[in-house]
Amino acid sequence: MRIFTKPCTPTRPSGFLWTALIVLVLLSPVVSAVAKPRSSDLVDGRTAAARGLAIGALPDVSMEAGLLSDADGRVLWSRRAGERRSMASITKIMTAIVVLEKAKLDEVVTVPREAASVGQSTAYLVPGEKLTVSELLQAMLVKSGNDAATALALHVGGSEDEFVVLMNRKARELGMKSTHFENPHGLDASGHYSTAADLALMARYAMDKPEFRRIVRQKKAVIGRRGYKHRLESTDLLLGNYRGAIGIKTGNTDSAGYSVVSAAVRNGVLLYGVVLGTDSDQMRFQDARNLLDWGFAHYRPQELATAGTVVGEAPVSNYLDVAVAAAISEDSSATVLDLNGPILRTVTIASVRAPVHVGDRVGAVTFTQDGRQIAGLPLVATQDVGRPNPFQWAWTGIVRGWRAVFG
Fold first, then answer.
1. What does the DSSP 8-state code read for residue 121?
2. Cα 207 from Cα 193, distance rounded (Å)
């Protein structure tokens, strides 16, 4: 058996003017005196110093806590991701999850007076008006209406307390070990907290639901009937202003600061960014943009192997000095974080015994980066080798015996 290792060459804001100003900021590169990397920030689980990276290689962000992960939950960057913090209206992601799993979209809900009186972030629902569950989900997720969240909670749970029980139960099912809910809307309350890591987990789960995913990518929506029409505009300013943005939820309270969970797709790569605790509406979106930009710049698809590429020879044991070419069986690519260093290709080829047929497995090739295997493929024979006849078999034995004795 032969093993070869070598580097692999990578073949509402309010008011039109204020809205316009923030959009201009989002569309232009911005350098903030507040935003800066921290030495404790982690890249794929380790500090910049541990990876031999300059601190300037990290995302330029101001948030108190946050993370960036891929669609499978791999954390590419994090800052205090396990710290418990207020989550504000990001809470409504869990409210939507419970509603989607407990109610039908076409169920009609009469808006109760207590829902319309919650205050702060509101969709301006009118007590007594009738809306479907789907419409209320839009009012809650697009406009971030606390009134819509409360109406849904009362409809599904019978009471807000009972609905919160369902929220915490679902959090436990999802493995959100550092999260506890006290209400369905996210207003500050003692015992209402989560972490960046848990919120990323919750966001990925919610985005697997087609109706949730459809709603949170809407910049605008209209709901209502019979005289009541609500024109909703998304609180997520990345939608339509950041290439690839697909949602998902903003949040802001005195305790939580300005926060946002964002998702974007580029070149087939889906990233989730969690930004918790910035100082302004503008800063949370600037941080989200910088974080996602950093992710797309450093976490990219890379071609690893091309089918048919010959990488060695497999000796045929029952022949004398005969070998078959060993080729990579299929094309392979992987999404790779380039800051983790070079990709190594390791080829392992076994001795085979005739008969050998084209396509028979004769070895394997693996690709690793920073000690982690990122791909593995079989190596296959590229030619047929028939079974040796008696003369060939005898001659092979004689020659090998001679070599063993006389070298």
1. S
2. 21
